[in-house]
Amino acid sequence: MNMKNLLTINAPGGMLTPNDLLKLVEPEGVDGFILGRRQNILIDYPGTPQELSRRVNVDPVPLVHPNIICSHASGGIDLEKNDWAYINEDYQTIFDSFTFKPTLSVSICSFQQSMFPLFSSKLNFIASNIEGLWHLVIMLNQERVLLPHLFKTTQVAPAVQAMQDFIANDQFITSHHLAELLEASLPLNENKSADLILPPLQNRDFEGFTPMKNGRLALNIFSNHKPWKKEFIRDFANLAKEHDLNRLYVTAGRSLLMKHISKKDLHSWEALLGRHNISIRHSEQDLAWIVPSHKSNSIKLKEQVIQELNHEGFACHGLNIAIDPRDSDCGAPIIINTSKNFMSLSCRVIYKPSFDYRHSGFKTAGKNLNFDELLTCLRDLQQQFHTRKIDSAGVRIQPISLEDNQPEQYQCPDCLSEYHKNAGDPQNGISPGTDFMDLPKSWVCNLCECSKLKFQPI
């Protein structure tokens, strides 16, 4: 794929129409496309696609405006779950209120569904138990914080816009201070947040044909990191139009999802898959890995690791592993980061001790690992995963308190000098008792002139 002409096709929640697909593969030089982790499409396209749906945006790669991840696609598929935001069309209301392109990554999900990771963005809105109200979990500088307020559906987009502005003005702002600024800018006091209680983790990919609550079928197909070819895309879109199916989805699992297929049309869709040799029964190993579709070296490593592990057997059963993800909160409890040292592979492996991606905090399982050492490390982690103690209560996340005291000491990362609230910095006009956050932006370390933005709380 030619990176020079590479575009990302962003549609909030991955919602597209069959006509969108047909327009994307219309030019003679387009052979197909690949799917991204943010429900987006990556395509080598000459120029700019025209006549796409109103919510669809086109950006060059690398990403400037990350696509909005949303669990709307899972609505109506899981027979045991009820998603009020899907039923009441709150997702659609939120999408329509975004009159700007977010520069921060945003996720909008139901906590009940298992198709989409809850914490895959800097700003993660999660449906509460109260209809029309959302929790907000912020991920800044590897710190995960649940804000002490619930947000109305109509406040989601304004909150994103406000936080974007705050972060643009202060690159090293803390999650705590961001919550304070947000409280001052939006009327949130009436909607206090309780603990966010997440049910025990379920890993379901819904591959193939799945019954829906309305008696119809959903078809979810994976490409296993291979491009979707133009001929298949055309036939897929045309069959959808023939059956009056006007919406399809790109999922965060890099699959194509078509919902509301009539059971009487099942044979037509099975024939389509058969003609194009599309499998709906990928191995557990293939679906367990999270790898960027545009990183060929990462994909090659995945294939080599799977091949070696399969010699002795390597049952995942819900264990997800990521290689070189864009963000550490990608939905995988094990992450492999690779680098090249004098043309040889060197890997660092981090993992979450609970093996539940929804918990915060990673530990290091190994570093500077060669290929054989990487295999040994993964086998050890797999055994830990299958012998772990499973918490039937799920995950409880408590909101921060804005009444908590701010840190009174901050340290310069360059010369290690400290700022103490009680002492202030009188020689530069800073009175004792001044909070670090209240220092002017022009304030610098009085020893080495390091910027205030680089200081760390201690």
From TrEMBL:
Family matches, as SUPFAM superfamilies: Rubredoxin-like
Q: Which CDD domains match?
A: rubredoxin (cd00730)
Keyword Lipid metabolism in the entry? The reply is no
What does the UniProt keyword field contain? Electron transport, Iron, Metal-binding, Transport
InterPro entries annotated for this entry?
A: Rubredoxin-like_dom (IPR024934), Rubredoxin_dom (IPR024935), Rubredoxin_ET (IPR050526)
Ranges of residues in domain Rubredoxin-like: 407-458
* Cofactor(s) recorded in Swiss-Prot or TrEMBL: Fe(3+)
Could you name the domain of life of the organism this protein comes from? Bacteria
UniProt GO BP: alkane catabolic process
Which GO MF terms are attached to this record?
Answer: electron transfer activity; iron ion binding
Query: Record's PANTHER family?
Result: RUBREDOXIN (PTHR47627), RUBREDOXIN-1-RELATED (PTHR47627:SF1)
Give the protein name, as stated in the record.
Rubredoxin
Species the sequence originates in: Lentisphaera araneosa HTCC2155
